[in-house]
Amino acid sequence: MEKHDCHSATQEFPHPFIHTLKLTRAQRIRGIILGSILFPLRIVLMTLFFLLAWPLARLRLAGLSEEQRSRPVTGWRRWLLHPIIWLLTRTVFFSLGFLWLKVKGRRADLKEAPVLVVAPHSGFMDIVVLFPTQLATVVSRIENSSLPVIGALLEFNQSVLVSRKDPESRRNAVIQITERLTSNGYWPQMLMFPEGTTTNGSALIKFKPGAFLSGVPVQPVLLHYPNKLDTVRWTYKGTTWYESLWHTTSQLYTNLTIEYLPVYNPSQEEKNDPNLYADNVQKLMAKALGLPATDYVMEGRVPVCKLGGLSLPVDSPARETLSLLHRNGLGASEVEAALDRMIDRCQSGAPGLKASAEELTSILGLTDRQTAVSICGLYSKDDIVDLRQIYLSVSALCGFVSFKSLLHTAFTLFDREDRGRLSAEELSGLMGALLGVPQHHTAELYTEASNQGHLTEDDLLRALTTHPTYQRVVNEHLQPKEAGFPLANGKTANNNGNMHNSNRPLHYNKKFE
Fold this sequence. Notes:
The chain has helices at about 5-10, 25-60, 65-70, 75-80, 80-95, 150-155, 165-180, 240-250, 270, 275-290, 315-325, 330-345, 355-365, 370-380, 385-400, 405-415, 425-435, 445-450, 455-465, 470-475; strands at about 20, 100-105, 115-120, 140, 160, 190, 220-225, 235-240, 255-260, 295-300, 300-305, 310-315, 355, 385, 485-490, 490-495, 500, 505. It is of the alpha/beta class. Strands 2-9-7-3-6 form a five-stranded mixed beta sheet, with helices on one face. A four-stranded antiparallel beta sheet has the order 15-16-17-18. The longest helix is centred in the first third of the chain and has 35 residues, at about 25-60. The protein is globular and about 70 Å long.
């Protein structure tokens, strides 16, 4: 099956990270009537069975040393407590409306496939797949271990816990997963969602390599929700988790079909290349689902699409910035003046590269501080932002300057020692600023663009404007759209940096050198 890239995906099927449940008036009325009865009843029952499971789940590892906890549980802790917890947690989901589960195919035993890979990942209700798999071991965020009941169930499951923010935690998780999958039956079967996040089910996003690193056979497992209303999905944007819970519990029942595909045995080439292994399994599962296999992925809670090693934002921070500025009443001339002030500050030296929300309010000429806070949030996790990111990514979309001129400015800003060349780390910073999201995998671009280990401005310009892959990045993400990008007051910018309004053309040919 041919793999779809970001561009074709956005043209042919809905955005995979957005899901909004659309209801007719009759469906809303029906949901309110049923929900007013079923929702409180089901939540009470769910809570009751969870509370019954909580102490029993803790009992499984109670009194064991850290060394004993690092080994699979055996004896009465397994044969007595395992079926009890299975029954109680299955009853939880029965209470929520999952009255029966339809299973197609045969689940492979532990020796055939140490790991089950499940897709598509729709929401927290997908955990129902654990019951036909006899509570296979999972991988979870370490933050979930502190949640009431959930933390106890993860401990009972002897789950692999990982902190996405801590590189050391991620390395230890990889070691743990590899040890378990290659233990030759010592550890129970594992179950993983290789997409790593939830989607609207319109496509399979890029599989993360975690389940494929050890090179052992995997069994693909498909989840189908053949319901009239798609209530279970909870994505990056759109329907929230509590809306999903309300709509799901407001239905009389929810259907789920779990389909086991034949075990996938990797070739030697796939064993040597986990990313290739993951991509091939993704394509296989996408074909079985009748869906596209895409290069979308979630990086640091930001949805992106991979192209040539670069991470291309699905929701452009620069476009959202321009939208916020326009809603604040800034026209084309005000936006250009704000960018002038910003580049002047950036070129003044290192202390001027970062700005607080208060400083950004002044630089942009805003009257509302909250708008500056929102813009900071698009580029940073706090109220301090690197002005190079805002200036370069917004300038690329405005079309005030040519791309060659903009790249010269970017190169100058990141070549702080004025050596006339960039290191691999500096290239990552430059591309991250141009695209508006951090770039962690620019080695492919650096290799393509550099000459004998040195990357000059001319080398980078040549690679970005002549190499087919990176030319696409520039044309599709670092230029105003062909139809023109709206700035304000009816004005638009085209790819040549020309400004147009309904009265007369204006030409901007400024060079920041």
